[in-house]
Write the structure tokens for this entry.
Amino acid sequence: VALALAEQASSYSFAPTPGLYALFTIFVWPTPVVGLLVGFAVAGILTAPSGRIDEEARQATQPSAPEIDRAVGGLLAVWVFLPLLFLFLVSTLTEASVFIRRYLIVAVPGVALLYAWALRGIPSAPARLVAVSVVALSAFVLHERPRDDFRAAALEVRSFIATEGAAPVLLASGVIEGENESWLRDPARAGYLNAPVDYYPMGERVIALPRKLRGQPLALEILEPIMPAQPRFAVVEWTGNGADVLGWLMPRAARLGYRVERRNFGIVRVALFRKGP
């Protein structure tokens, strides 16, 4: 693993170097945290309505979280903190910035068990029920799924190039391998970068763009045969995946006499370039 990271370090440099704040908050999930806060608040109200409680109520509201024995606690600690600290140290001590949520998915079950144990420790059965209900409801309210409507984007592009089937479509899918020049020059690997068009065709001539054009030596080499020779072309930018090409491309196209129309399909942006008044 270490050798692979060293060889591919430049491919993992897109994320910022994490700080201590990221280390301590990356597993602070809003949904269970809200449930815990509400649960303990409700438990506080139920256990001391008038400043004192009788013995029966005291027994019903005693913390009921099971004790974690040493073996289980050690397993949970390794499960959660080993990948967390490993990726944090790699990201801070090397140029490979791999402290990203998706790379920590191996620790998610352990974190979920810790949250469940904390919920079990709320000192009131009714309050625990409220807490779990809040967790379930907030999972729907707080969850946000990125919207990337490639189907609509592909329809827009096909409609634009319908009269000129050979008009090029430049696709910046945002895949991190798109920063690697060898991938862009290899037709087979470039096909992986253009994977969305396998499901949503966008024309006969789809060209893979780097993830970002600014500072990319290959950018001009790709674009020189297209601008200003082509009367029209389309650019598709998957911003939700990290692509950032239009900010660099549009001013240059404008200087060459292109007009541009932009369409947003969630986090997929389409820019239609055509020459003429």
